[in-house]
Design a protein that fits this description.
Oligomer: single chain
Helix content: 40-55%
Strand content: 15-25%
CATH class: Alpha Beta
Radius of gyration: 18 Å
Shape: globular
Number of domains: 1
Largest sheet: 6 strands, mixed
CATH topology: Aminopeptidase
Bound molecules: zinc ion
Number of helices: 8
CATH architecture: 3-Layer(aba) Sandwich
């Protein structure tokens, strides 16, 4: 289930960008955000199952898989605790994140929907962020860099979403596609950020599958594969620092 307090990440991301200007051989840093937690249970599933437990279980598996491949991985929560949006942001702050993936599971009013979908922010498909970044600059050349940086960052989020969604569909089917979450809070995010809905917890079949560790492991592997594909492409020489540097420059 999506949450309105999705991701306010711009201030965090800008500070991360500035702090990693000289980063060279550091492994990519991935922040995984297990949706909900504590009293915020998320969508209710079958037989008392809750979205918050499924997202945490899968997040841990994603972390393990990515760590095995040499990536640095941080979770916004390690346990079943309630986190405000601000706390999620603070826990991600200063970590030098290269990308952010929020994990969720779905539910439908009729309990009949199933499948997987991956969201990017509204600004991914608009020029709002680009304009905002540009008007913040007085220097025309800097404004041009700012626009290019914001567009590039939006494109990166879409690329990350595609990489994850493609692999999820390979293992789970039920392609509900890449979608846009029209939340202003995503505007200005300076690292690629997506929200993954791994399935419907209240669907008779899919909900039961989502509780199985082997299914969770396959979902986690798919998400990790997508992240790794995104990161390895991004690490191509000449591509790794451009967009982030441009956005950081624009927002100083
Ligand atoms: Zn949710």
């Amino acid at each position: 289930m999506r949450v309105l307090n999705l991701i306010v990440f711009s201030a965090v991301a800008v500070s991360m960008s500035a702090g990693r200007a000289s980063a060279g051989p550091d492994p990519p840093t991935v922040v995984i955000d297990p949706g909900h937690g504590g009293s915020n249970t998320g969508a209710p599933g079958l037989d008392g199952a809750t979205e918050k437990r499924i997202t945490l279980a899968i997040a841990r598996m994603v972390r393990r898989r990515l760590q095995e491949r040499g990536l640095r991985v941080l979770l916004t929560r390690e346990r079943d605790v309630y986190l405000t949006l601000g706390e999620r942001v603070r826990r991600a702050n200063g970590t030098g994140a290269d990308l952010f993936v929020s994990l969720h599971a779905n539910a439908s009013r009729e309990h009949t929907q199933k499948g997987v979908e991956t969201y990017v922010g509204a600004r991914e498909f608009s020029d709002v962020a680009a304009h905002r970044a540009a008007v913040a600059e007085q220097d025309p050349a800097q404004a041009m860099i700012a626009r290019a940086g914001a567009r590039q960052m939006a494109a990166e989020s879409v690329r990350l979403a595609r990489a994850v969604q493609t692999r999820l569909v390979e293992v789970r089917g039920g392609d509900r596609g890449m979608r846009q979450a029209p939340y202003d809070v995503l505007d200005g995010v300076a690292v690629p950020a997506v929200l993954v809905e791994v399935g419907f917890v209240d669907h008779a079949q899919e909900g039961a599958e989502l509780l199985r560790p082997d299914v969770q492991a396959r979902i986690a592997a798919a998400i990790a594969d997508g992240i790794e594909a995104f990161v390895s492409h991004r690490a191509t020489p000449g591509q790794s620092n451009g967009p982030r540097s441009a956005v950081a420059l624009a927002r100083r």
